[in-house]
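Extended Data, panel c. Modelled sequence:
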Amino acid sequence: MRIRRTRDQVRPRSDSDPVLPYPNGWFCVGTAAEWRPKTVLTKPFMGQEIVVYRTERGTLRAVRPHCPHLGAHLGFGGTVDGELLVCPFHRFAFGPDGACARTPYGLPPRAGLQLVPVTQAAGLVWAWHSHDGTPPSWQLPEKLTRLSTRHIHIRSLEVDGHSLDVAENAIDFRHFPHVHRIDAEALSEPKEDGPFYHMDIRLRRPMPPFGTIVQDFSVSLIGVAGPFVEIDLPLAHARVTGCVFSTPIAPRRNRIHFVSAATFTRPGRPSRGVSRIAAGVLESAVSRVLGRYHYRDAAHDFPIWSHREFLPHPRINGADSPIGPFRIWARQFYPSVGEDREAK
């Protein structure tokens, strides 16, 4: 797995936009490689913080940051002892279920940590957010959880913008020619599938000196965290995958994770005449190249996201991208107006 750090693209702001509350769903909080056994890290998440740790046996857990005993922050000096998370203040220890399991003096109080649902997929760690504290109502799709991370390439940075920008950007193919210099057309009408949204798009990308490359691909939105894009290359017996996952961490500020991977798809073995080692080297190289193109395309959107105003009722026309249907579908991830606003 290759992980690349990138300079954050954040514009200082003195104002905040109260229109969009933090969305519900699964969102990335970091790369799985950050959490080796017994690692404890604090991550910004939906305007607050969560503490994510991995036990000695490898169990991944996330909790709200403060100890219920006397309020110490578990992410600053907290440690893992076997399967227990230990507070740095009085060494009260908490089990994977959140309950206080041990103290250095007296009996453990009837107190527990507030757990945050967490899982791992595609080389990333995902945390669940719900404005009213309800448990996960859906799970990450199987194609994401089964994505091989052996030669995956991940790049992350912070970007100013609204929580909906990345997801909406993926299906707004009308901006591709003007911002990315890529011709685009829709091959299918968007399809809703509960918390997932699908659409097929064709791109015509100029790639001198090779001419124009035609790419047909399927976009699948995983909630409003962002798109999962798959492109099949039948002649090469390969499939390339590109994802842009966005996590709101503060008002109008998001942590973006770019994920790219290439995999040979010939059943049971890599392409004919190519050894497994050579196939792995090729997959890794293609993943890196795909990651560069992926990031370069998205970087053209950063200034627009940073200065964009969210319009609840955009004046779209009949030939526009499916912004209207997308916005209606996306309402399921947001609380009612006035609840849990980003500007809180």
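Residues 25-129 form a domain with the Rieske Iron-sulfur Protein fold (CATH 2.102.10.10). This feature is highlighted in the accompanying rendering.
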